[in-house]
UniProtKB/TrEMBL annotation:
Organism expressing this protein natively: Streptomyces daliensis
Domain of life: Bacteria
Protein name, UniProt field: Protein-L-isoaspartate O-methyltransferase
UniProt keyword annotations, A-Z: Cytoplasm, Methyltransferase, S-adenosyl-L-methionine, Transferase
Lineage per the UniProt record: Bacteria, Bacillati, Actinomycetota, Actinomycetes, Kitasatosporales
One Pfam family it belongs to: PCMT
Subcellular location: Cytoplasm
Length: 290
């Protein structure tokens, strides 16, 4: 049976091959944090695996019944582990399920690392995380920013309680609040950086107010192209911001932004606004007009 250290090293080695330079590239603090935080300590004994079996149901992985498979899943770079379905209405005690209304998960290690790569906080900076989940990404962030500098907000009270307990057990001084993260967390503002592990359709105004001018917001944003995109934004201190999209991924949305409105309401170009050119040598380019 592979040891946890071996599985963690293998996971890091694989993430090192992703992207042009590997997601840990030039972020030695992140590599250290990944080795310092046991992901298994934040993973519930029972989780759903988001890959349907032949009968169409998502299987449950139980640490007590399949310890090695469970641990391999914990350190699978591209595998998210589902910890809540339909806001808790589907119970894990009832076993595999056909429901795909995932409402909380441990995001896959590669995505957690990629997002923190872009957040890249400095030691001592004040960070606000939206979407605590089980607390794993909070632990990695706290390894970097140090005691008392991370505030994390989780909308589901029972998840916030579990994460707070896990983080305290590990000795972290992190402010964990059960609240709607769309409002940020005013009492701890201003923040140097904000990371959301729940996607948005519209950037919440509270985030733009609570992050310092020239600070950084990293969040997934829904796109009309079927996938979400990771986005960075620099607030201007007056309630506005500028930024860009970084890469594609998929994320559950902020509870208050689950329902999609028309794309134009969120400022997206209409599909006819994209121009397509194909050159005789087969190069295809798609871009917005102008
Ligand atoms: C992908 S999971 C969290 C991943 C986690 N940070 C990790 O370490 O893997 C997204 C979380 O965002 C939470 N969430 C959704 N809407 C929220 C909101 N309005 N405010 C705060 N948390 C929210 C969900 O309950 C869920 O736990």
């Amino acid at each position: 049976m592979a040891t946890v250290v071996e599985l963690r090293e293998k996971c890091v080695a694989e993430i090192d091959t992703y992207g042009r330079l590997g997601y840990f590239n030039d972020r030695p603090w992140l590599r250290r944090a990944f080795f310092a935080v046991p992901r298994e300590d934040y993973t519930p004994t029972r989780v759903w695996v988001p890959k349907r079996e032949e009968d169409g149901r998502y299987p449950v992985l139980d640490r007590r019944e399949q310890p090695e498979t469970w641990l391999r899943a914990v350190y699978s770079p591209r595998l998210a582990l589902i910890t809540q379905i339909a806001d808790g209405a589907v119970r894990i005690e009832d076993g595999p399920t056909v429901s795909s209304v995932f409402t909380s998960s441990l995001s896959c290690p590669a995505v957690v690392v990629d997002m923190l790569h872009y957040l890249n906080p400095a030691p001592g900076e004040r960070v606000l995380e939206i979407g605590t989940g089980a607390g794993y990404s909070a632990a990695l962030t706290a390894e970097r920013v140090g005691p008392g500098n991370l505030t994390t907000v989780e909308v589901q009270h029972e998840l916030a309680d579990l994460a707070r307990a896990s983080l305290q057990r590990a000795g972290y001084d992190i402010h964990v609040h059960a609240a709607d993260g769309e409002q940020g967390w005013e009492a701890g503002a201003p923040y140097d950086r904000l990371i959301s592990t729940a996607g948005v359709r519209q950037v919440p105004a509270a985030w733009l107010r609570q992050v310092k001018a020239g600070g950084l917001i990293i969040t997934p944003i829904a796109t009309p192209m079927n996938r979400d995109a990771l986005m960075w934004l620099r607030p201007d201190g007056e309630g506005g911001a500028r930024g860009a999209l970084i890469t594609d991924l998929s994320f559950m949305k902020l509870t208050s932004q689950r329902e999609a409105g028309p794309w134009r309401e969120y400022g997206w170009p209409r599909l006819p606004d994209y121009e397509v050119t194909v050159t005789p040598d087969g190069e295809q380019r798609i871009r917005t007009h102008g």
